[in-house]
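Data deposition worksheet. Section B asks for the primary sequence of the deposited chain exactly as it was used as input, without tags or linkers unless they were present during the calculation. Section C holds the resulting structure in token form. Section D is free text for depositor observations; keep each observation to a single sentence. Incomplete worksheets are returned to the depositor.
Section A, Depositor: J.P.
Section B:
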Amino acid sequence: MKMKAALMYGPDDIRVEETEKPIYPKDGLLLKIMAVGLCGSDIRNLTTDSRKGDYPFIYGHEIVGLVDEIGNEQTKYSVGDRLFLFPGTYCMECDECISGHSENCSDTAVAKLAGTGGFAQYAAVSGEKIRRGGIYEIPDDVSFEAASLGEPLTSVFACLENVDVSFPDTLVIIGAGPIGCFMAQLSKIRGAQKVIMIDINDNRLEMAKQFGVDVTINSLKEDPIEAVKSLTNGRGADKVISATPANATQTQSIHMVRKGGLVVFFGGVPKGSMTELDCNLIHYNNIWIKGHFGASYSQSKRAFQLAISPSFPTEKFVTHVLPLEQINEGIRLTRTGEAIKVVLHPFD
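Section C:
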């Protein structure tokens, strides 16, 4: 049996064509993908030699859909169930999981149980993934587009919880992409009093204002460090989050935070690259620096619950819904800043 999928044949070479439908085990199921979000990490993978020549490959991890078929030994879900498939899977037995950091699970076999293959009409879900968890049912009154935001919101939710963004914080977010906009909205929900957004794209900065951003700074037009100091009476922000794939913003971030403040390196930078930091400034100003990646199962479920709740303005974030055939257009819209969040429909 055939299905339609967006196959990557190399950097910037994505072709929507027919391929074999995935085979699911007797204790698993076949998910009919109704919507899949286009993530920044997907775009990075699709536009670089991410597979080091191992092509073709199907990316896509913000997956929601309907149970289309079930194996004869699968008993948890039924045909027609609406499911959100969290890409992370944790063993809950290694030292990292036991210590409360399941997002760093060291069992690589378990971690690979789910995670990609969403830019297609169908995805196979194994029985072990079902048993390990990270699959949540979508209420009938929630759209698939809204539910797909549960995945990108997860890491943002975990980050802001882990560093306790709350009243009366002044928060700087560097990077006005989808993740930065999620951060701004959720920071306001958590009680932050002032959110300052920094980017180099005026269009993105303008769109970010609808998500609770109080002040925007274009770092190509003014010195972002001096601008933040001016906005905080020379004190610096309580917390600064670098949410871009750039070493330069990490370097800048420690100059924007107050003494005793917290800096978070959220966005991954190019592998092998090094960030230059003023270690004396960090030392004498008692600056804390935290790296953030992923989320625990508890955080992933609560982030999903937030994404499908009336408290979260999904309709503002999903700016473009496109058929899978237009994935390359979705990439372009996201990279230029014309879109906040692109969701693809494999069956349109």
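Section D:
The CA atoms of residues 4 and 18 lie 5 Å apart.
The chain is about 30% helix and 25% strand.
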